[in-house]
Amino acid sequence: MKAVALTRYLPIADPESLVDVTLPDPAPTGHDLLVRVAAVSVNPVDTKQRAPSAKVEAQPRVLGWDAAGTVVGVGPEVRLFKPGDEVYYAGDVTRQGSNSELQLVDERIVARKPRTLDFAQAAAIPLTAITAWECYFDRMKIDPGGAHRGATLLIIGGAGGVGSIGIQIAKVVAGLKVIATASRPETVAWVKDLGADHVVDHSQPLRPQIEALGLKSVDYIANFNDTDRYWEQMGDLVAPQGAVCMIVGSKGPLAQDAVRGKSVTVCWELMFTRPRFKTPDMIEQHRLLTRVAELIDAGRIRCTLRETLRPINAANLRAAHAKLESGRMVGKLVVAGWT
After folding, report:
1. Regarding beta strands 218-223 and 152-156, do their DSSP bridges make them parallel or antiparallel, or are they unpaired?
2. Last residue of a domain, one of 225, 241, 268
3. What is the pTM of this model?
4. Which of 9, 21, 86, 139 has CA atoms 20 to 30 A from the CA of 200?
């Protein structure tokens, strides 16, 4: 099968950072689906996993953790899918990724793709939707049934991939009042169009902007951007007994006095935790992706795809990584189709 892989960890400008290779076709066992990949999305995890280092892989390593495609084979323990099913998923960071014609993925973290989306559109959804969903409902314990309707949520990084789907999930599923950060006219317009009730500029101090909205604090904060940069402001802004969830690790120690004094719930979200550790509730990712697909097909959540490159090859994936590393991505970028 064709694939895009690496053996050395190099700057993305180096043509050897991602290369076209041919690998043996994998065979499904256990709960595995064998999926013929039609489209893949690029996320910060891809660039972080590819970041320059002295490490050398003995065998080509395939990146990619967002995909849509068709099931072409199943392991003996598979019960949820059959060959011919069109699926979407984010996968498992401990296994070979989706930048290959064929991929093995555990059925418990896969769902049928939204009927109303094509493969490229569907590939833009899984990782970001899982991240936002788990952040709100599993980590911060917001009620997906609407019991916290009207509570305030500050999303830091509103125009990025997670923020773009996260605004919609917070509004549609939980009924929250969403304040999203954005700084450029393009990103401000984007987050407003996705349903943000208010927009604040993350390049400026947040407290004066929050107070200008008539608020002294916010109930929940989802930081989908830089933990260190916003940690002090989050501790200041979060309400007593509120919650803060982050997806980006800190570079240094984080002072705890502000959040401790308010009895704030501080939590982290990593969507690879369930598949990586094979947790007993691993199938929740199948369930939540199924729910997201239903919301998309009902017209309540929209796709966040902004750009598609064709076909899937090393040159286009290098271009996608470079664009993501620029820090100016809005929504999602997908690479689709094989030649």
Report:
1. parallel
2. 268
3. 0.97
4. 139
pLDDT at 141: 98
DSSP bridge pairs for 34 = 73, 104
**Residue 102 pLDDT more than 90?**
yes
Same domain, 39 and 102: yes
Same-domain status, 233 and 247: yes
Q: Hey, what are 302's tokens?
A: 């929209």
Find out whether 137 and 111 touch, Cβ atoms under 8 Å. Answer: no
State the CATH number of the domain containing residue 29. 3.90.180.10
pLDDT at 327 (0 to 100): 85
Amino acid 318: pLDDT: 98
> How many domains, the chain?
2
Rounded to 5 degrees, φ, ψ at 291 are: -65, -40
pLDDT at 224 over 90: yes
At 59, is the secondary structure helix, strand, or coil? strand
Q: Residue 240: which domain range?
A: 128-268
* Cβ–Cβ < 8 Å for 220, 140: yes
| Angle subtended by helix axes 185-194 and 161-169, to nearest 10 | 30
